Amino acid sequence: MKKFHRRRAHGRRILLCLLALALLFVVLALRQNILLDTTSRHALLMDAQTGQVLAQKRANEKVAPASLTKMMTVLLAIEAQPDIDQPVTLPEDVFPELTAENASMAGFAPGETVTVRDVLYGAMLPSGAECCEALARLVSGSESAFVALMNQKAAELGMKNTHFCNPIGLTETEHYSTAADLAKLLQAALQNETFRTIFTTGHYTSIPTAQHPEGVSFASTLLSKLNGSELSDGQDKILGGKTGYTAAAGLCLASLATVQGREYILVTLGAPGSHITEQFNIQDAISVYRKLETKMSAKR
User: Fold this and answer.
1) Do 175 and 169 form a contact (C-beta atoms < 8 A)?
2) Beta partners for 42?
3) How many Å apart are CA 265 and CA 255, to the nearest integer?
4) Are strands 113-115 and 203-205 parallel, antiparallel or unpaired?
5) Angstrom distance (rounded) from CA 254 to CA 85
6) Active site residues
7) Nearest C-alpha neighbor of 45 from the set 33, 55, 34, 36
8) C-alpha distances in Å from residue 191, one per residue of 48, 51, 59, 83, 255
9) Tens digit of pLDDT for each residue in 259-272?
10) Are 243 and 271 in contact, with CB atoms under 8 Å apart?
């Protein structure tokens, strides 16, 4: 009789172990599935407060980050220049090369003097390359010295699979990052209130100058394509983001959203398309945040 009871107890333990394993597989499947049907080749979803990774898809593969690079450029400039209302001049010599590279520009004129605040917004919202070059020289004196600072900061943040070669995101063989590393960068950057304000701003106009008497007006390359009703719950919203594109990188996006009272970071890289196609990076973000809404609502 004792042997019978021992066998039954042993059987129950095996059954419980099997059930626990099955539950684990289900949880892992749920964590992964929220990103499986995104068109982006690489993605990571993170709880913005805790840093917990909720889902990932090839998130540690090194790829070209395109203009998501500019998140690092803006963060370093803010940290180095506490007075962002001081003047800064757009260096004239960078414009021919940036034009030749077909880099995105904010619209400032060569030699125009504006404020650091203006070029910070110009780098983030319309992804202005001339603004990044101005910030790099202001902070470090040269692009090469600033790039060294970028890589130093990346190491401090634990971005182990990242290496920068320029402050803009232009394609170079040794200029790479991952969805996981860029999510770490964004989580850290959002702790800076100035960065957060810029990152979540939809529109901005620079100070008047001789070259632009009414200032230069910018619109966020993400928020300008949204109407605020993309998520079903009225309290849920995509708060801000930074888009990017090169032929090598595809369509990229780092975004911040609030869902069911919590904030989430989503980084997607390598979506198909270009500036003139459907913006599949933005479609991916809307889709993932909607799925997250559904999952969170089901838990309530």
Assistant:
1) yes
2) 269
3) 6
4) unpaired
5) 27
6) 67, 70, 127
7) 55
8) 10, 12, 23, 18, 15
9) 989 999 999 999 99
10) no
Between CA 46 and CA 252, with CA 255 as vertex, the angle to 5 degrees is 105
**pLDDT tens, residue by residue, 98-111:** 999 999 999 999 99
Q: Comparing C-alpha atoms, which of 80, 150, 90, 94 is closest to residue 118?
A: 90
Q: How many angstroms separate the CA atoms of 97 and 191, rounded?
A: 34
**pLDDT at residue 227, rounded to an integer:** 87
Residue in this structure with the two tokens 């009789």, named with its chain if needed: 1
Residue type, 92: E
3-state DSSP assignment of residue 55 = strand
How far from chain centre, in Å, is Cα 211? 32
Nearest to 51 by CA among 175, 186, 167, 174: 186
* Rounded distance between C-alpha atoms, residue 94 and residue 92, angstroms: 6
Which stretch of DSSP H or E encloses residue 37? none
The string of pLDDT tens digits covering residues 3-43 is 545 556 566 777 666 655 544 544 454 455 678 889 999 99
**Average per-residue pLDDT in the chain?**
91
Q: pTM (2 decimals)?
A: 0.88
Residues in the chain: 300
Q: Assign 3-state DSSP to the chain and report helix, strand, coil percentages, each to 5.
A: 45, 20, 35
